[in-house]
Amino acid sequence: MEIIKTQSLIKDYLLGKVKVRALDGIDLIIETGEFVAIMGPSGSGKSTLMHIIGCLDSPTGGEYYLDGDLVSNLPKRALAGIRNRKIGFVFQSFNLLPHFNILKNVELPLMYGGMSFSKRKRRAEEVLESVGLSDRLKHRPNELSGGQRQRVAIARAIVNKPSILLADEPTGNLDSQAGGDILEIFSDLHAAGNTVIMVTHDPNVAARADRIIQIRDGLIYHGDLSA
Amino acid sequence: MAISVLESLRVGLADIAMRKVRSIVTILGIVLGVMCIMVVLAILAGMNKSTMSWMEERGGLSKVEIGFNWQYDFKKGGEAKLNLAELRTIKSLIPEARAFNPNISSWDARLRYRDKEYSAQCFGVYPDMQIVDNWFPDKGRFISDIDLRESSNVIVLGSSVAKEIFGNQNPLGKKVFLKNQVMEVIGVLSEKYWEQHGGGGMWGRNALEYMNQRSFIPLSTMMTKISPGSKVDQLEILAYSPEEALALQKKLRPIMLHIKDGKEVFRVSSAQEDMLEMQKNAQIFSAIFIMIAAISLLVGGIVIMNIMLASIKERTREIGVRLAIGARRWDIFMQFMVQTVLITSLGGVFGLVFGYLILDMVGKYLQMPMTANNNMIFSALGVSVGIGLIFGIAPAARAGNLDPVVALREE
User: Which of B3, B14, B15 minimises the CB distance to A112?
Assistant: First the structure.
């Protein structure tokens, strides 16, 4: 089943008075349960594509179907609910809230989803245990190592069982040991049936994926990668 | 569905607890404003209460007084005195008055009883004095109409006079000398008492002690026997209500002018008019202070708005993260709105607490009961919440309108 389908997706930015085309007609299909890596040099439009896939942004033109629903023409306020229910984000710089302990951090999406206080605490503890952090619930992010922080971020991303897991350079700020651990978790999540989309420029990281999508100048590149 | 206000409260409280120093600085303006309003209102209420009870004790608000006009230039002629014919004219012109008491005071009235002497201010009065001054005998009786008609040699003593001359003896029926006349004591008036605030006055704690040191005889006795040829220099008239007193005062002014050939030798005043004048002054006074408080609150509100705007700028990335994981614009708006209102309400609460402490201190110093009523508490809290709502909108709206992509890019 297609979880993501885009048709001639276009995104223009206004840079001052100049219109810049970031995406120039992307046709993309990702199946449920796939592990896909999106690669491309900086400025290629891969981040823009991820923002649109993650419903943080709307395309200027074209269509985007998420889970069978057309979301590209939804108003911005409707996107928040979709982000909350269907998408889990993992960022390169973790983006945890520094003043909350990790349990509170993981609870946040559940809070915005409207889950009751006691229920979400239980659910967050459960997910943190699955990433091996059940002994650190009351710690703040700055008391943890980079690898541990990224595991908290993954826990936060998966806590409301999203349809897709979006990771933007998840190993970019980690040493190879911690990065390897994190990739292991993504592989496990994929193996458990989750759809994983990972933006990266590291071929070794991309090699973990079922499929690699190359972006060049706002278009999917089908040429020879080794060229 | 948006997150509940309760969740916003929880988030807001956590934010405030996290940034304690900033929160304290933020609320200072509100604390001062609320404190100022509360203290001023309480002091005014206390003053009003105090003034009212003083007026009550002095005969109430229905009294009209006619007496010497200090502002009149007596070189232009005229005399601030009334003879019996003039009194009769006045009385006949104001049948609506409840009581009518002309009096003559004599300062050199020495009372003698056996070997004791007492220098008491002595007044020649009408029986109506009891009603006008709301002052009745404790023992015996007051001067009657018959006493007045027959110029009897009777005297009524103030409580201090009686105590001074007779000690524990019963003064009723005793004969005392006043000048060359033998007077029979027929009554002793009840003690006038009004506790003085703000330290001892001329007569110690009792501000009305001077009244207890007076003695009273029939007006006719005064005019014929004690100081022959004297005329009435003061006239007290009681109306049935403070409003009627004002009307009476208005009516009496031209009457007095006419009687004295257009010379303004008498001043016609009423307790009600004095009271209204005082209240007007108090209102101006309180309006000024309320304005100062309002400015302080306004400045406090602007400070809060700016600090919140700065705080939101600083927390842009956090807002981006919240948006990315599913917060709606409304959630973000509410988070900052609730936080601002929480901060200002906290300011209100601290303002009330400090206000109470100050009132307590001021009250002790002035020996005046400072009353802070529930109204004040509710309005102080209402005002601080209102300020949070007004000055919280702009920052909260800015936070809620952040673009998630832009916010996430912020360092």
Answer: B3
Task: With beta carbons less than 8 A apart as the criterion, state whether B109 and B254 touch.
Answer: no
Same domain, B37 and B171: no
Distance from CA of A1 to the nearest CA of B (A): 25
- A74-109 pLDDT, tens per residue? 888 789 889 999 999 999 999 998 888 999 999 999
Nearest by Cα to A55 from A18, A81, A29: A81
Residue B6 near chain A (CB below 8 Å): no
Average pLDDT, chain B: 85
- Judged by CB atoms closer than 8 Å, whether chains meet at A54 and B324 is answered as yes
Cβ within 8 Å, pair B325-A108: yes
Cross-chain Cβ contact B405/A81 below 8 Å = no
- The residue among B271, B306, B327 that closes a domain is B271
Q: Can you give the residue range of the structural domain that contains A118?
A: 2-221
**Residue of A83, A85, A114 with shortest CB distance to B3:** A114
CA-to-CA dists, residue B201 to A204, B193, B204, B208, angstroms? 96, 13, 5, 10
Burial letters B323-349, b for 16+ CB under 10 A, else e: bbbbbbbebbbbbbbbbbbbbbbbbbb
pLDDT in tens, B89-116: 999 999 999 999 999 988 778 888 888 8
Same domain assignment for residues B201 and B102:
yes
Residues 6+ away with beta carbon under 8 Å from B390: B301
Chain B touched by A54 (CB under 8 Å): yes
Mark yes or no for CB contact B405/A56 under 8 Å: yes
Spatial CB neighbours of B220, under 8 Å, sequence gap ≥ 6: B124, B148, B149, B150, B151
The answer to the question of residue A215 being in a domain is yes
B405: nearest CB among A51, A100, A156? A51
B22 versus B5: the higher-pLDDT residue is B22
| Last residue in a domain, options B213, B240, B271 | B271
Check residue B1 and give its pLDDT: 40
Task: For residue B99, list its beta bridge partners.
Answer: B238
Evaluate if residue B30 carries a pLDDT over 80: yes
Question: Is the predicted ipTM greater than 0.90, yes or no?
Answer: yes
pTM above 0.90, yes or no: no
Kindly tell me if the per-residue pLDDT of B340 is higher than 80: yes
Query: Sign of the C-alpha dihedral, residues B46, B47, B53, B57?
Result: positive
Of A54, A77, A100, the CB nearest to B328: A77
pLDDT of residue A227: 43
Taking an 8 Å cut-off on Cβ atoms, the answer to whether B324 and A56 are in contact is: yes
Interface test with B, best of A97, A112, A164, A199 (most B CBs within 10 A): A112
- Residues in chain B within 8 Å Cβ distance of A114: 1, 3
B7 neighbourhood in chain A, CB within 8 Å: 111
Is B207 strand, coil or helix?
A: coil
Total number of domains constituting chain A: 1
